[in-house]
Amino acid sequence: MPQSMSQASIPVFVVGLNALAAVLEKTEAFVAEKKIDQAAFLHSRLAPDMFDFTRQIQAVSDQARRGAARLAGTEPPSYHDNETNFSELKARLAKTVAYLQTLDAKAIDASADRDIVVPIGGGRNGQMKGRDYLNYFLLPNYYFHLTTAYDLARHAGVQIGKRDFLGAVPLKIL
After folding, report:
1. Is residue 174 one of the residues assigned to a domain?
2. How far is CA 126 from CA 71, 107, 137, in A?
3. In terms of pTM, does the model score above 0.90?
4. Host domain of residue 115
5. What pLDDT score does 169 carry?
6. How confident is the model over 99-141, as pLDDT tens digits?
7. CATH code of the domain containing 39
8. Any residues with CB less than 8 A from the CB of 171 and at least 6 apart, and which?
9. What is the C-alpha to C-alpha distance for residues 55 and 49, in angstroms, rounded to an integer?
10. CA distance 95 to 47
């Protein structure tokens, strides 16, 4: 049986968001142990023209929340981008997971061949079929920000590895 749109999106987002929350736990402990200024860490970035750590976390949440809502044909809740500490960032991720779990899987599944309108910046929109939106726009953007947040923590010296990034994947050990 082919994988449905809801199976290819919601569980992926939930596992990634929960893994990122666990990375935030380790990062918060690292920042406290090393006596790093929390605000300075939260504003760190890999390059001057990239989002900082806080904005990467917000973007992961935004991609999952807004993207899944577009697939479900609903309006996502609005979040203020005003987090200033690790606790607030973890709460945002938890709130996003809780929202994702309220979405109607059948509505998401019905989006495969439906046109999805996507803001692409500069006040312009693009349009693509739901299947293409998920595979070629939403998931790559989601993973870009998820990976960048992970990389910022790892680059700073937080002891995390691939298993931290992967999170609780459904892996059966043989």
Report:
1. no
2. 15, 21, 11
3. yes
4. 5-165
5. 77
6. 999 999 999 999 999 999 998 889 999 999 999 999 999 999 9
7. 1.20.120.450
8. none
9. 12
10. 29
